[in-house]
Amino acid sequence: MANSSKSYLFGVVLAGGNGSRLWPVSRELFPKHLLSINDAQSLLQATVTRIEKLIPPRNISIVTNQKHLPDIKTQLNFFERSQKGMALEQLISEPCGRNTAPAIALAAMRLYLENPESIMIVLPSDHLIQEEEKFLELLKYSLQIAVKGYLVTFGIVPSSPETGYGYIKKGELIAQQANKKAYLADGFFEKPNQELAKEYLDSGQYFWNSGIFVWKTKEILRAIKIFLPDVFGTISEISTLELQGDKNAQIEEIYQNLEPISIDKGCLEKSDKIVVIPAQINWNDIGSWDKILQVLPKDGKGNFIKEGAINVGCENSLILSNERLTAAIGLKDIAVVDTKDALLICHLPEAQKVRNVFNDLLEKQATEAIEPKSSIRPWGQWSIIEEGLGYKIKKIIVNPGQSLSLQAHKHRSEYWIITQGRAEIEKDEDLIFLNKNQTIFLPLGCCHRLSNPGQDILEIIEIQTGDYLGEDDIVRFQDRYGRT
Amino acid sequence: MANSSKSYLFGVVLAGGNGSRLWPVSRELFPKHLLSINDAQSLLQATVTRIEKLIPPRNISIVTNQKHLPDIKTQLNFFERSQKGMALEQLISEPCGRNTAPAIALAAMRLYLENPESIMIVLPSDHLIQEEEKFLELLKYSLQIAVKGYLVTFGIVPSSPETGYGYIKKGELIAQQANKKAYLADGFFEKPNQELAKEYLDSGQYFWNSGIFVWKTKEILRAIKIFLPDVFGTISEISTLELQGDKNAQIEEIYQNLEPISIDKGCLEKSDKIVVIPAQINWNDIGSWDKILQVLPKDGKGNFIKEGAINVGCENSLILSNERLTAAIGLKDIAVVDTKDALLICHLPEAQKVRNVFNDLLEKQATEAIEPKSSIRPWGQWSIIEEGLGYKIKKIIVNPGQSLSLQAHKHRSEYWIITQGRAEIEKDEDLIFLNKNQTIFLPLGCCHRLSNPGQDILEIIEIQTGDYLGEDDIVRFQDRYGRT
């Protein structure tokens, strides 16, 4: 591998965000990068697939919060990618979010040990890039600049006086190739007010800070050492502990003690080696519902109305509703986002306030902010239909040929009704086949496994009863997806 | 009974509306009069309870559509009221709605046969009257006027230039008692535009047409005979058929052939014997969501926000949500009405357009316009949690000491899980007692009955499976509420 032509080139995908402003679709346990925006792929999937055109899977790391690791593995089809060389070590899990500087430092230290001459491309996992070829061309170009020791940032050429982004001002032109240019950065600027944003736009000197970076690993570590010595010290300590073997508890504690800080504020703003490469790649950070409306296809009145919803005279409105029949009458600049257990109706110019609602709910530990009511699994998906004191009702869909793990529960009994397809059920010593409308009872403690032996979808309704119904009441004996 | 002091006085409650403008709470099978507005009682219950202070139950008729009859019986606690003299014949069911003139004619013909000197008070079943004592005082006063042969209407003293109501203009003062006055009517006027409504209001000469009428039965029949000879002829024919015994099919057909027409337009507008009695009784026809907001208690910003919903800076908005956590941000003049299977978000000044949405849905036979997802029963209530191809999941609550009917189903099996309380279950020859978390399977065709022998609520989850899951697949063998 060390001899491969691309072995010096690494991708680091940052998947640590929570997307609080896209509540109620995003949740603490289902952050923005796991979402799909009018696309079969999630933002994370799209980010990884995109970068794989330049970097092989074995050189791409994902830095994420450890609580999102199972979902990330599922979304990456990890078992498939592992056959192409992706290793479990490439899923770098933070014990807690400490913003981008510690996350980047953690990844950089690992890459440096692997190859001190490596170049790393840092990519947010939850942005949309619609002009992929242009983007890849610019990335290749940026390598030529990074090789010279510069810390390269991608500056998005602004199309409107946006107040929700940070800006980078361009300085001296230092390189040019066809229509690709590289400028020294003449400063980083925080989110401006409307007036200032308009000045930035009109001047043609400013770009949106995309959070996409390209640099030699040793150059960013050098900058972190100078400008964020605490972060550098902590990460070095963690690196030493990792080399000594399993010291997870200690590593977690050390990491938690770090102050959260972004790489931009902590490092880049202070360096004189920053280069900005202007990028016109149809980029959107889809950070709030108004941004989502921007990227969705709209009708003549500026609306995106989910199929099946009724629209009577709405304008510039977003109606996202999968759960029930929705009728919207006379709305202007309103987002309606309906999920199984939570409903948001928001005046779009105030879309940033969704974050406050989310944070308030999180503080109260409201499940509506924490858990999604449905989840994709390697074998299919489940969704919660109803919950009450002592019972929970789920719909479970098993894809053809797939199996859940062989499992048992300590606190709950389950009753299954086959509503579609054909089920193969291991129940203690027995193997049972059930068809549509047939039922089975799985008493507390019974060892069981559900499989779909057919060519079609298997759908069952599961009724759980018991005094504790948490997802963690599961003992896995066998699992074909490596989850035991 | 004929000698009772009040045997000449009858109440006729018109419960034929569908309340299409209060969708999605109202449905074709759950019309407006069955709704409760911030009150334990439904509008119908409140109307009947109110009039019972003047008229005994055995003299109160309800004219309703036959498809609403079971719900009306449940809401009226019919079995309790029947002990106070209410007879089944007092629930007059129309085979279909033909507006108020035929409904009033039908009731009047019956009352005339019972007592040709009777006085009838006609009351819409779906209006709110907050000043009940004043209203009853005015009703008593109106009897003195009606006795003289006048057709008395209640004219609501307007408090705003309302464009959603018809108006009555007052003419010559013909009687007065303390602050109660009776005027000859100087004309009926259709819903005005904003400008005209303001003129009406400023003039002090106009009142809202409340649809509350008081008259001698023979006087209204005489008027119907003159101004609506077709209606009179049809109703006479029906009356004759009824006297001849069971001719239901024939009666239905005859009734269906009537042209729909209101008593106001068909009769009152043409008569010179109309009297209007001004009424200040805090009346509201709550005909649309904006009217509902008018009568609900509001916060300092003019909002009614259902408990549990999150409000960030809303104004003059109505948030009615029982089903899921709802967050509203920055809404102005918006109604959000959330139900299990349908969601409405409506700009309040356009609240009348809800009727169009409802009618469109009804035309497509959408269940969201037809059936409510929950229903009150004499024994408790049920609600549908989830439906799919071949299965239906219900939550059933049985009140202490109550029983469902002894029943069987031809097309479905049922599986019950007790989630609260204690259940007594008859299953063919067996009597079984189940506690929380226990389950039972009721195969297709099995004869069963569910009872709550305890002092607390019994709650079960029922999973139906089968190829037909309509509410009408039920054979009742015994029923303590007379539904066999």
- Counting DSSP E segments of at least 2 residues, the number of strands of chain A comes to 28
The low-confidence parts of chain A are: 1-5
> Order of strands in the sheet with the most strands of chain A?
18-19-20-27-22-25
CATH fold description of the largest domain in chain A: Spore Coat Polysaccharide Biosynthesis Protein SpsA, Chain A
The CATH homologous superfamily of the largest domain in chain A corresponds to Spore Coat Polysaccharide Biosynthesis Protein SpsA, Chain A
The CATH class of the largest domain in chain A turns out to be: Alpha Beta
Q: Pair with the most extensive interface? A: A-B, 59 and 59 residues
Integer average pLDDT of chain A: 92
What's the gyration radius of chain A in Å? 24 Å
Number of helices of chain A: 13
Could you say which structural class the secondary elements and strand pairing of chain A correspond to? alpha+beta
Largest sheet of chain A: 6 strands, antiparallel
- Architecture of the largest domain in chain A, according to CATH? Alpha-Beta Complex
Give the end-to-end Cα distance of chain A, rounded to a whole number of Å: 31 Å
